[in-house]
Design a protein that fits this description.
By secondary structure, the protein is an alpha+beta fold. A five-stranded antiparallel β-sheet has the order 5-2-4-3-7. Strands 1-6 form a two-stranded antiparallel ribbon.
């Protein structure tokens, strides 16, 4: 298997939009590209402050792409299309579904105040909603049971 490069994540991200060529043109012009949710993933939105702590709880093996906008204290986690069902009761997360769009920089760049805290790697890997829910759980941070890792 060929090693993934930073551009592999950018290519994958462009294919998540209905018109990948338009996304690439915007990036070539140093602009954020609007990528609609609901085609390849949903977005779980929260504060950057909460995200920093939660990322450690989620763990690298269950972590997918996380886009941040530090000046606005915002973070957007890319999650599977059915994650809204699993995360509905997590009050600190706002689940973004169709027709919402996420303004994205390429995976390998910081652009217009936004950058990837966890880059898309090109594999299509998304954050595991069970791990995310446990990290942001209604009673505060929770530990996953051992059975969750099997």
């Amino acid at each position: 298997m060929a090693p993934r490069t930073r551009h592999t994540g950018t290519s994958w991200l462009a294919t998540c939009a209905p018109d990948p060529a338009s996304v690439r043109r915007r990036w070539a012009g140093a602009q954020l590209a609007p990528i609609p949710v609901g085609r390849s993933w949903l977005v779980a939105e929260t504060t950057l402050t909460r995200t920093m702590d939660a990322m450690q709880r989620v763990g690298s093996d269950r972590l997918g792409p996380v886009l941040v906008h530090p000046e606005a204290d915002l973070a957007w986690w890319l999650v599977p299309l059915d994650a809204d069902q699993e995360l509905v009761d997590i009050r600190v997360l706002t689940i973004r579904t169709e027709p919402w769009t996420l303004l994205c920089p390429p995976a390998h760049e910081y652009l217009s105040g936004r950058g990837w805290l966890e880059n898309p790697d090109g594999s299509g890997r998304l954050t595991d909603p069970a791990a995310l829910g446990a990290a942001f759980g209604p009673g505060g941070p929770l530990r996953l049971p051992v059975s969750a890792f099997v």
